[in-house]
């Protein structure tokens, strides 16, 4: 009986904060703008075999079709209905993806856009991904249906109807964000409609939701529709499992709204994480890696068990959203790999890895005028499939950071060291740092302008380990650097500051 109550208490206290990943899988990857058919294949051929826990997908519901500029990525953040039909695929393809990914233990997390519909200037007609009629001017979305009563136009107090001042929490929640028609989530009809949409996805088998623009909804309104959500589908999840909820709240400090207001609903995106880590790894503002010794709450971040963390996301990798110029992305691969390596080795937060498409960046006066560009597409606007090259990288303009050896191997590192303490920190008071995770793994960085040559306590059992950054373990040998851990746990590390990747990581599953 006692054990039973303890289990119940444990479940209740994890609930919507639990990522619902299969045991031993500790990260998810955002396959930004991928087609459902490609995601299904990627779950089977790559994500499951390499220990990834899940995929954050782009919004699956019908959205406006924008042709000027040509099919921007952000059109998917302008819903027209909750029909499952988008550039990523049809409802049947969506169901097939969720089923096949779940069947190999990789779960699907839906980007839910429920704060708003399309922009107020979206016009009238059937220029939507399923051809549903709508009229933005009269607030008419019959395919949901929503009508003028279901929007916040009357509640917003600004003259323009737009958010004009982020220091006014009422404006941020009740007015239009960049002209997007703001749903009246105080109405039970709107709450129920949103919950029905999400419950349909739960029935199909999704494991949770990223909730877009959460900062622009009242936490209490969100709680009202989240309380209506079902438990997850028992074909794949234990009875009584709640959906994982992570809310997009951009809080870098200094505004009316803070991330902590949303902790009751689920986890929250910690935007300070990537902004600060980018600053440190770029060595801007006098920052150095030695300062990362108390990374996490010690840096003023939210508590680890509430945080969803990432180095970059689909917004701030192209200058949208928050974070500014310090954000590291695939465009700076050497520093980016170090940042991802640090994130995946460090115990703080639940980690999400970005997987991007390439676009033609064009900076004019410091701003990328092509920041709107959508995914690789054909002339009819359909999204190109993800092709796989013989060397396992991706083609057709897809970057596939999650397939980079260093990143994939660090995702595995995180699985191996899961639950282990943060131990054996070392630094040279500059940009050479090292730390371990109990007796399971150890990582060393050299982000200084001179070589590192040091004997360090790893905490690992004696033996020969394969560095998983310069290579990996293959059969009974290492394809990259070998590290000898002595009987006392110490090992000698040498990292040239000009190495392709100036860091070394070892773990017990890559021991010869
Ligand atoms: C759960 O998923 C299975 C398999 O796809 C499906 O047959 C079943 O109807 C789903 N359950 C609910 C409640 O929708
Ligand atoms: C740093 O290490 C590299 C590779 O081992 C070596 O070629 C280089 O001479 C070293 N630089 C210094 C300043 O010792
Ligand atoms: C081992 C090593 O390279 N240590 C260097 C760390 O940085 C200081 C300067 O802060 C150097 O003097 C050390 O040589």
From TrEMBL:
Domain of life where this protein originates: Eukaryota
Catalytic activity, EC: 3.2.1.1
UniProt keyword annotations, A-Z: Calcium, Carbohydrate metabolism, Chloride, Disulfide bond, Glycosidase, Hydrolase, Metal-binding, Signal
GO BP terms in the entry: carbohydrate metabolic process
SUPFAM superfamilies associated with the record: (Trans)glycosidases, Glycosyl hydrolase domain
Signal peptide feature range: 1-15
Cofactor(s) needed: chloride; Ca(2+)
Domain Alpha-amylase C-terminal per the UniProt entry, residue ranges: 423-511
GO cellular component terms, semicolon-separated: extracellular space
Catalytic reaction equation(s): Endohydrolysis of (1->4)-alpha-D-glucosidic linkages in polysaccharides containing three or more (1->4)-alpha-linked D-glucose units
Record-linked Pfam families: Alpha-amylase (PF00128), Alpha-amylase_C (PF02806)
Chain ranges of the Glycosyl hydrolase family 13 catalytic domain: 26-414
Molecular function (Gene Ontology), one example: metal ion binding
Record-linked PANTHER family: ALPHA-AMYLASE
Family from the record: Belongs to the glycosyl hydrolase 13 family.
Annotated protein name in UniProt: Alpha-amylase
């Amino acid at each position: 009986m006692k054990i039973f109550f303890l289990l119940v208490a444990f479940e209740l206290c994890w609930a919507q904060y639990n990522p619902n990943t299969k045991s031993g899988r500790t990260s998810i990857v955002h396959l930004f703008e991928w087609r459902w058919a490609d995601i299904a294949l990627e779950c089977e051929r790559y994500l499951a075999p390499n220990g990834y826990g899940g995929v954050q997908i782009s919004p699956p519901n019908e959205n406006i079709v924008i042709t000027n500029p040509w099919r921007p990525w952000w059109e998917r953040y302008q819903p027209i209905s909750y029909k499952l039909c988008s550039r990523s695929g049809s409802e049947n393809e969506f169901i097939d993806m969720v089923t096949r990914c779940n069947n190999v233990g990789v779960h699907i997390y839906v980007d839910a856009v429920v704060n708003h519909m399309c922009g107020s200037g979206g016009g009238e007609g059937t220029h939507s991904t399923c051809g549903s009629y709508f009229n933005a001017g009269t607030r008419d979305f019959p395919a949901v249906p929503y009508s003028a009563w279901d929007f916040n136009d009357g509640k917003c107090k600004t003259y323009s109807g737009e958010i004009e001042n982020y220091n006014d929490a009422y404006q941020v929640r009740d007015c239009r964000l960049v002209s997007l028609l703001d749903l009246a989530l105080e109405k039970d009809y709107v709450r129920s409609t949103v919950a029905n949409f999400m419950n349909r996805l739960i029935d199909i088998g999704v494991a949770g939701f990223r909730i877009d623009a959460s900062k622009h909804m009242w936490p209490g309104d969100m709680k009202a529709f989240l309380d209506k959500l079902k438990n997850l589908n028992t074909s794949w999840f234990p009875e009584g499992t709640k959906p994982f909820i992570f809310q997009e709240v951009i809080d870098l400090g200094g505004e009316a709204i803070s991330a902590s207001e949303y902790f009751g609903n689920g986890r929250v995106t910690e935007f300070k994480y990537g902004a600060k880590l980018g600053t440190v790894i770029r060595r801007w503002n006098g920052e150095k890696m030695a300062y990362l010794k108390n990374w996490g709450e010690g840096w003023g971040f939210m508590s680890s068990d509430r945080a969803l963390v990432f180095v970059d996301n689909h917004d701030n990798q192209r200058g949208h959203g928050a974070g500014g110029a310090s954000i590291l992305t695939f465009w700076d691969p050497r520093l980016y790999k170090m940042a991802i390596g640090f994130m995946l080795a460090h115990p703080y937060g639940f980690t999400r890895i970005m997987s991007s498409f390439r676009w033609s960046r064009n900076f004019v006066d410091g701003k990328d005028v092509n920041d709107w560009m959508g995914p690789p597409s054909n002339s009819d606007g359909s999204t190109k499939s993800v092709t796989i090259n013989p060397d396992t990288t991706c083609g057709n303009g897809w970057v596939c950071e999650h397939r980079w050896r260093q990143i994939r191997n660090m995702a595995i590192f995180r699985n191996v060291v899961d639950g282990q303490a943060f131990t054996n920190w070392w630094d040279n008071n500059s940009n050479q740092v090292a730390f371990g995770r109990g007796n399971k793994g150890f990582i060393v960085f050299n982000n200084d302008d001179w070589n590192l040559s040091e004997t360090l306590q790893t905490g690992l059992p004696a033996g020969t380990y394969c560095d998983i950054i310069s290579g990996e373990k293959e059969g009974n040998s290492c394809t990259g650097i070998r590290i000898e851990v002595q009987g006392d746990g110490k090992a000698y590390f040498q990292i040239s500051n000009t190495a392709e990747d100036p860091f070394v990581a070892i773990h017990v599953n890559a021991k010869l």
